[in-house]
Write a structure and sequence with these properties.
Blueprint: H1 11-42, H2 46-54, H3 56-66
Length: about 70
């Protein structure tokens, strides 16, 4: 590699990578919420489903309570 300069990625590749990362994060978030809702249904805690889907603090508490990472 001596004497060679590697080209930097173009802005286009950076934008594509960022979009892929954002899309992946959204899918992971959907999966976590689905797991939480399922867990709450099984535990017959249907009242917590509404609060988990509308209150960020509450769903974080429930993720922690049920060990959903």
């Amino acid at each position: 590699m001596e004497g060679k300069v590697l080209p930097l990625p173009s802005d286009r590749f950076i934008r594509i990578g960022k979009k892929q990362g954002i899309d992946q994060g959204i899918e992971q978030g959907k999966g976590r919420l689905a797991k939480l809702i399922h867990t709450l249904l099984v535990a017959e805690r249907t009242n917590d489903i509404a609060s988990a889907t509308t209150n960020t603090k509450r769903h974080k508490e429930l993720y922690h309570e049920y060990g959903i990472a």
